[in-house]
Amino acid sequence: MKKICLLIICSCFALLASAQTAANQTDAKKRKQGPWVEQVPSIRGEPGYSWEGIYKNDRREGIWKKYTPDGDIMAEETFKNGVLDGLCKYFYPNGRVSAVGNMLSVDIDGQKDTIVVIDPVSGQENLTEVTRKGYSVKHGEWKVYDEDGTMMRETYERGEFSNSVIGNRPKSQSTPLPHEAATGGKKKKGKE
Question: Which site from 22, 52, 136, 138 is most exposed, i.e. has the minimal number of CB atoms within 10 Å?
Fold first, then answer.
């Protein structure tokens, strides 16, 4: 019986050790593959954080979670081909949701294009290959929450802001901003 228990305990330690070494692996081509944990140090007054997620062929894929140094969640973001594309959630330091919405991938990081470059002296046209940087934009409805829980809906069309709704009512364009209310309205350009 003692031998069986000892064998089970040794097996558990072996599984635990192999699970810890399975993170942060690269393939034969030195591309990041599988589960990764990345530590980002604090810089220029901004606090550090850690990332957890999956790499596929050196690109982030699926849900990545961002944590504070204390282990509190900051964000959950969905990546496709290394670029934000899908549901994203952001959190206040107290753990409450601050914003939820979708991002849309506009370009894929590393995608190559061929463009024509004209030499300004000779006027000769040359084909040049350029590598794109991937980026994303807000798309669809975003729910943005105050720390007290008040929700505002914002709608985006491929990164362009289209409208805003507080709770279930549209945000009035005629409502003065706090600094405008004190002075009795908007200031006109050129007149003081």
Answer: 22
